[in-house]
Amino acid sequence: MNGPWHVEVTPDCIASGVCVGTAPAHFALVEGRSVPRNPSAAPDPLLLSVADACPMEAIRVRAADGTALAPTD
Amino acid sequence: MDYPFGDGTSLALEPEYAEARATCPVVRVRLPFGGEAWLVTRHADVREVLTDPRFSSRETTRNPDGPRFTPQPLFPAGVMSMDPPEHTRIRSLVSKAFTGARVQALRPRITEIAEGLADAMLEHGPPADLVTMFALPLPVTVICELLGVPYADHGRFRELSDALLSTTALPPEEIFAAVKELNLYLAGLIEARRAAPRDDMLSGLIRARDQEDRLSEQELVEFSVGLLVTGHETAATQIANFTYMLARNPGQLAALRADPALIPNAVEELLRHTPLGAVSGIPRVATEDVELSGVTIKAGDSVVPSINSANHDEAVFDNPHDLDVTRESNPHIAFGHGVHFCLGAQLARAELQIAVHTLLTRFPALRISADDAALHWKKGLLIRGFSSLSVTW
Ligand code: HEM
Ligand code: SF4
């Protein structure tokens, strides 16, 4: 798990604000949609639980080598 | 000023909200129990309260005698009383069962339940009580099946569930007794599932508790009770409320009949327009001094974010008091916003869309039987709506 994680928000986002409220350091709401503050973020377990808490599974977190980390099944 | 402004026996928002938004958007009010709080009425401020970590849900349970709507703190171990990171732990455990994709897969079953209820209502013939024959059994059957609670027991938990949402409808002792009985009921079911697991959410939560230690026994019980109660009171109440709103807005109803593809949009507009809360918003407590619309909220003050008022804010919605099923820009917050954004939002959307669709197609001439003066309202509860609603066709 070396190197930064890739964080992406898909168009499924419904602007619930769950990620923004839970991890304001990682997400911001811009014009009715969440955007990662840093698409290439230092590994942080919080990103994984937020991706699991998103009501639309719209947050995708991948390891530096591209392995999908969250959401989990 | 005493709050709530009215007794909740109307779906028209009390005029005090518009007045507050225009003149003093963050206003001091006296709650039914425990004293004064700040009522927050503008869309931007309400969203701020719901997302800013300086407004805590957990703090409300630390001072059980603080300003509140219910004599007892509601679900002290439930998700609504938690802040991150403890909240995130529970939420990420259960949100999988309620995602958009999961709910999409449930739609055929929800439709089947709705169609079955419509059949039974047609067989019964007019007039019929929409609440007991359709609005209530639809979401209750869905949540029972999801959770793994026998639907046959619903007679028992309907009353208990109402009691839990009482602010002034019942004496506190009766509410405490109902809380205790519901907890015991779920604890009993949990023991049964522990011994013989099934493919339901209760069994899944028990696994997370016993094998992974991801939640405590009390959290397990209260979360299950919470789901059963919200599964009863929210969508069920809004199905009857929406039916009433459409009946009283014949132009909007005609537009929907002419173009059923508008139903999802209409449901969003009905969610925005129709207040579900009789008191709007679960209180939070400020953990630091925060300024909102020029008012300083002091650390330790209680704050009530009014979702109803936010959804009628003229700064955000054109003609907010009009019901417009074709409304395009609709950033309503009927499901809340931020960490406590409604866990059941996608499920409730599906239930409401299917309910409206089924009622429109199976009952083309549906009408409310009674005049407004003769309607039966719930009273003294956290939510507003009909205890029964006689319809004919
Ligand atoms: C018309 C239907 C519904 C409406 C308008 C609604 C509205 C809301 C709102 C506004 C909140 C946030 C309250 C706050 O932050 O103060 C909320 C939270 C919640 N809702 Fe709903 N709800 C509905 C249906 C449902 C259903 C059907 C379920 C369950 C199956 C459900 C489960 C929950 C839960 C568990 C929470 C707490 C979430 C948390 O604290 O993280 N809701 N709901
Ligand atoms: S939690 Fe998911 S749906 Fe909600 S704002 Fe974040 S990305 Fe969008």
TrEMBL record, chain A:
Taxonomy, superkingdom: Bacteria
Pfam families: Fer4_13 (PF13370)
Protein name: Ferredoxin
Taxonomic source organism: Actinomadura yumaensis
UniProtKB/TrEMBL annotation, chain B:
CDD domains reported in the protein's UniProt record: Cyp158A-like
Keyword DNA-binding applies: no
InterPro entries listed in its UniProt record: Cyt_P450, Cyt_P450_B, Cyt_P450_CS, Cyt_P450_sf
Keywords, in A-Z order: Heme, Iron, Metal-binding, Monooxygenase, Oxidoreductase
Pfam families: p450
Family: Belongs to the cytochrome P450 family.
Name of protein: Cytochrome P450
Species name: Actinomadura yumaensis
Native organism taxonomy: Bacteria, Bacillati, Actinomycetota, Actinomycetes, Streptosporangiales
